[in-house]
Amino acid sequence: MELKEVIGKRQSVRKFKADDVPNDDIREMIDAARVAPSGKNMQNWHFVVVKNKGLMHKVAEVIRNKNEEIAKRMDGVDREKSDRFRKFADRFTLFFLDAPALIIVMTQTYIPSGYNEYELIGADPHLLDDLLSHRNPGMQSLGAAIEHLYLRAVDLGYGCCWLTSANYAAGAIEELVRTEAGFRDETYYMAALIALGVPDGEPKSPGRKPLEEIYTLVE
Ligand SMILES: Cc1cc2nc3c(=O)[nH]c(=O)nc-3n(C[C@H](O)[C@H](O)[C@H](O)COP(=O)(O)O)c2cc1C
Questions:
Q1: Of 30, 67, 187, 209, whose CB has the highest number of CB atoms within 10 Å?
Q2: 219 within domain boundaries
């Protein structure tokens, strides 16, 4: 497919057919992520691709438990908000169970340029936090890699959904990554999940801002 067509076809897919995603196709997608640009060429990513249904159920279970733990604690504070959270969590954090593959996206901390230097000169902590949290190049690099993977998946006839809503369960998922998936490098932590498979139906786009709203041209 032409790149423009792939970009136009990409949609978040939350319903999947049962069809397998062959390992050769998965390698193609990871290879697309591999060549993405990254700050200082750090390549701060590792993709744990789970096709094992037992492990996918375990990931879902830890997310479900966390959803319920948060909702229960919210019950005592604001029932309306906890009900809303339950509905949101049911809809947006667990649908990957229908997908034939789940990618657990692991990353490493990226110390931005200027951070160590700021620290050395005793700069205001909010400047350090600003570099690390708001503009962090590590997350920007990871986004580039995920999008490469995503577009190659679409190119090969698959669909994905990028998921960060379940990141509050990251600690428990990382534990599964180490104990059950065998990726034990503790310098890595989870940043996102990706549900992957053959789309079942045509998802509807939630729409976009008009072009004029998102850029400023200075000639
Ligand atoms: C960083 C990121 C996190 C996302 N997290 C979730 C998520 O947790 N659950 C979900 O259902 N969709 C998630 N999405 C999908 C977005 O909701 C979706 O991209 C957006 O609504 C635009 O729709 P489209 O992808 O179909 O064009 C995420 C997308 C991105 C880029």
A1: 67
A2: no
